[in-house]
Amino acid sequence: MLLARAILSLAALYSALGLVFAAAFITRGVTKLDPAARGSGLLFRLLIVPGAAAFWPILLVKWLKSKEHHA
Known about the structure:
- By secondary structure, the chain is mainly alpha-helical.
- The chain has one domain.
- Helix content is about 85%, strand content about 0%.
- It has helices at about 1-35, 40-45, 50-55, 55-70.
- The protein is elongated.
- The model has no long low-confidence stretch (mean pLDDT about 95).
């Protein structure tokens, strides 16, 4: 039972971090990774929230690397 709680706690933490990241990503990060997303509407940005939340570690690394290239 302890293992199950630990797994669920880690999944909850991962999901919470993903949602926080997704909020930042749809407002600022998506245009850094994909210039074609500039001027995209709210609907597009809301559509990518689940993917951004699920794949946040990968997108975070790409976002940080894009900042290095533009600095």
